[in-house]
Write a structure and sequence with these properties.
This protein has helices spanning 3-18, 54-59, 66-86, 93-102, 114-120, 147-151, and strands at 29-33, 41-44, 49-53, 123-126, 133-136, 159-162. By secondary structure, the chain is α+β, with helices and mostly antiparallel strands. It has two domains: 3-110, Zincin-like; 121-162, no CATH class. Strand 4 (123-126) and strand 5 form a beta hairpin.
Length: 163
């Protein structure tokens, strides 16, 4: 899908589920943000903006199913509608109700495939002996040891590298 199609999904869901209410859903905008790295999307409710990760939705869209990406959009729409309804939004029961209404998974987070997490990561920890690796948005601060090598009694410290 193209970025304008994700915007259209969000706008359509906002209008459909706010019909009959006196909410300013037409004032909501959907933007793709290159600076989002720790989240896949966010509703900036006071500014009436739904931001989606450009890294995920544009640069690495091919590594994630369309259903997961649409669910992320609808997750943020649920936050927008929840905010318009009660002036706040979190991941509580009221938000979960909105998530179900718009067709989003009412969970707080979405699990991305490893290929997508790897492609979006800026840092990684890697074992110099067995090449085991895990990926991060921010630079890891604490020491860590390879879980595979550690199981056989060898405490190999993981190296931190920029991706």
């Amino acid at each position: 899908m193209k970025s304008y199609q994700y915007k259209a999904i969000a706008k359509s869901a906002l209008k459909t589920h706010a019909s009959g209410a006196h909410w300013p859903v037409d004032e909501w905008d959907v933007e793709f943000n290159n600076d989002i790295s720790r989240t896949l999307g966010r509703a900036k409710c006071r500014e009436r903006i739904i931001e989606l990760s450009a890294s995920l939705f544009i640069d690495h869209e091919d590594k994630v199913s369309k259903e997961v990406l649409v669910d992320i959009v609808l997750h943020e729409v649920a936050h927008a509608l929840d905010f318009e309804d009660r002036g706040t939004s979190g991941h509580d029961e009221a938000w979960k109700s909105w998530a179900r209404k718009v067709g989003a998974n009412p969970n707080r987070t979405t699990e991305l495939p490893k290929e997508a997490r790897k492609a979006m990561a800026k840092w990684k920890r890697e074992c110099p002996e067995c090449s085991w690796a895990c990926y991060y948005d921010g630079k890891p601060r604490k020491k860590a040891y390879c879980p595979d090598c550690h199981e056989v009694g060898n405490e190999v410290e993981l190296e931190i590298k920029r991706c």
